[in-house]
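Morning!

This is the sequence you dropped in the shared folder:
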Amino acid sequence: MSSDLPIIALTAGEPAGIGPDLCVLLARQAFPARVVVLADKTLLAARARSLRLPLAIVDYAPLADQPAPPGALEVMHVPLAAAVQPGALDVANSRYVLDTLRRAAQGCLSGSFDALVTAPVHKGIINDAGIPFTGHTEFLAELTATPRVVMMLVGGGMRVALATTHLPLKEVPAAITRDSLSEVIRILQRDLVSRFSLPRPRILVAGLNPHAGEGGHLGREEIEVITPALDVLRAEGLDLRGPLPADTLFTPRMLAECDCVLTMYHDQGLPVLKHASFGGGVNVTLGLPIIRTSVDHGTALDLAGSGKADPGSLLAALELACAMARR
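The structure's back. Tokens below.
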């Protein structure tokens, strides 16, 4: 592995979605890294033909020290189980999707790759194949034996992290405890320092309830769980403000005074960030022993093979992974 040029593993995601399209489009881009795509070579070649784009495929060579030439992709071949029709999901290929993820993550753990970037997968079809799957974040946590990870999105001039991830809303309050919230904030603090070079991150913390509980009249989680957890961490020197009402947390004045916002659940924080940056945002998994970034969108089955897929989020995810790897 070259010490000067990071090697980034890129998984192509759901084969019937726009992941392969985005990978083909990358062949026209230059990065300060070697990008190795984990996918079926025939899939990428077929998608390039659908897009009417020239594409050369270079087999992955572990000892290579240069990126693929312009117009080419370096590919670690992972065979599909069944032929792919753009836009048509097939349960037969669900294990293929997870195999690309598994091989990429194991390559990061072994030192063959410096970071992992993931194109979108389709959670539903993986579960339809009889494989319990709630998302990349949880899958990689289990694969790397990481007891807790934190999802953070970057975009629109913001960093927004989540105290909980893919949970039904009714299960969120019980999932937020003093211990769990403290663990999330410690991971967030550590990775903002080590991976984002922020020596003393300023973190704004949202309340769970409307108006941050309105002094207990709209819920007591702020009084009984969130504030006590924050007080302990503040005593250790962490720069935390909150719990704050989420409806006024994302104003320009508040954001100008912080490095990251921590929200309590998925749809409390991400709609704001995606409104500001959709198509250019990046999902980052904190707490893993590896670097992992991802796009901020789904598989867009209706756009697969059409030439209308926007590579902006994937380009941003690759650029951020390169920067984090260099740090």
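Headline: The chain is about 35% helix and 20% strand.

More detail when I'm at my desk.
O.
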